[in-house]
Design goal:
The protein is α/β, with parallel strands linked by helices. The chain contains 11 helices and 14 strands. The protein has a domain of about 220 residues: Rossmann fold (3-Layer(aba) Sandwich), CATH 3.40.50. The chain binds nicotinamide-adenine-dinucleotide and uridine-diphosphate-N-acetylglucosamine (UD1).
Length: about 325
């Protein structure tokens, strides 16, 4: 089975590509490299022994996207490509709406033209907005608080309408909670440009001495220690969730799954776990809440376990150790 992985040189796409190749899938990657590097292909080759075929294409452009399908017989697509920084999406909303939505529409148009109607889409827990309670099940009300989140929700709706209009489509929407960590080899991982916005990459830079200290955004939330609680999921477990989904991609319609662990950890839990797992200090200071943050975000992942036979295996220590291992091995060079 040949799988086109869009955004396959990115963080989650590269980990999923490794797992797909190791399970015997043939993988073709398309990426415009706006937030990743072609050198990731060499790392994938180093891990798996196979360098996936690569197209440097912007998916908002239809003709080059068509060419990928003309030149290859593609059975299914996993669509990771997109812009993902919440703060930046508030500053550049049009860029986010255009890139994320146009690419998702163009991709589906081209897939339909070539009779490829199996699609897995990277959505996010951000589509639950401010949930009334946790854990969150897939039937919770949907809303968003920023343009990035709105693109995810709009694409979910577009793909749902598509599946309603044409019963041959088989679409799985995967709502990721907070992916962190890196491949055990330390060869691929998360490598954001500039000062990181997200917790784990920020902690890594503080531990490495590149940033002075972590700002903990608020300690007055109604959580066990007052700091924000999230459902952190190891990126390898997340990648394996895609394998489980692709193996079940044979029922028409739209299928929606939360991919999370169901365990909540606070900011301070993560800091302590990182320090303990890696025997390194992470200096921090408590600051004001970050606007738009919610107290707690936690998945109920039982639907994915029931229907896909998938559940996470890796714990917080694995997440912290692998994130630091990647930083030590790959980010210093
Ligand atoms: P990433 O930025 O590392 O990977 C996305 C890739 O898409 C990048 O390599 C980028 O160059 C590429 N890309 C962007 N626009 C493109 C376009 N128009 N054409 C071709 N390639 C394009 O991000 P990631 O963390 O691996 O996230 C993958 C997907 O998962 C994204 O859709 C993201 O919104 C979603 N998601 C991520 C998280 C997270 O915390 N990382 C959480 C929930 C959902
Ligand atoms: C972020 C995105 C969300 C996306 C999710 C997936 C934002 C606002 N939201 O969620 O859309 O779906 O990633 O990974 O970016 N924190 C600090 N100090 C820091 C950074 C973070 O205390 O320097 C805290 C935050 O307040 C939060 C927790 O750490 O309580 C996690 O933050 P982050 O990693 O940015 O993820 P989310 O905000 O959950």
């Amino acid at each position: 089975m040949t799988v086109l992985v869009t955004g396959g040189t990115g963080y989650i796409g590269s980990h999923t590509t490794v797992e797909l190749i190791q399970k015997g899938y043939e993988v073709i990657i398309v990426d415009n490299l706006c937030n990743s590097s072609e050198s990731v292909l060499d790392k994938i080759a180093e891990i798996t022994g196979i360098r996936p075929k690569f197209y440097l294409v912007d998916l908002t452009e239809k003709e080059p996207t068509r060419k990928i399908f003309e030149e290859n017989k593609i059975d299914a697509v996993i669509h990771f490509a997109g812009l993902k920084a919440v703060g930046e999406s508030c500053v550049k909303p049009l860029e986010y709406y255009y890139n994320n939505i146009a690419s998702s529409v163009v991709l589906a148009e081209v897939m339909a033209e070539f009779g490829c109607k199996k699609l897995i889409f990277s959505s996010s827990a951000t589509v639950y907005g401010e949930p009334e309670r946790v854990p969150i099940t897939e039937d919770f009300p949907l809303s968003t608080t920023n343009p990035y989140g709105t693109t995810k929700l709009m694409i979910e709706k577009i793909y749902t309408d598509l599946a309603k209009a044409d019963a041959e489509w088989n679409i799985t929407l995967l709502r990721y909670f907070n992916p962190i960590g890196a491949h055990e080899s330390g060869l691929i991982g998360e490598n954001p440009n500039g000062i990181p916005n997200n917790l784990m990459p920020y902690i890594v830079k503080v531990a490495a001495g590149e940033l002075y200290q972590l700002s903990v955004f608020g300690n007055d939330y109604p959580t066990h220690d007052g700091t924000g609680v999230r459902d952190y999921i190891h990126v390898t477990d997340l990648a394996l969730g895609h394998i489980a989904a692709i193996e079940k991609l044979n029922e028409a319609g739209v299928h929606i799954y939360n991919l999370g662990t169901g365990n909540g950890y606070s900011v301070l839990d993560i800091v302590k776990a990182f320090e303990k797992s890696n025997n390194i200090k992470v200096p921090y200071v408590i600051t004001a809440r970050r606007p738009g943050d919610i107290p707690e975000c936690l998945a109920d992942p039982s639907k994915a376990e029931r229907e896909l036979g998938w559940k996470t295996k890796l714990g917080l220590e694995d997440m912290c150790r692998s994130a630091w291992n990647f930083a030590q091995k790959s980010l210093k060079k």
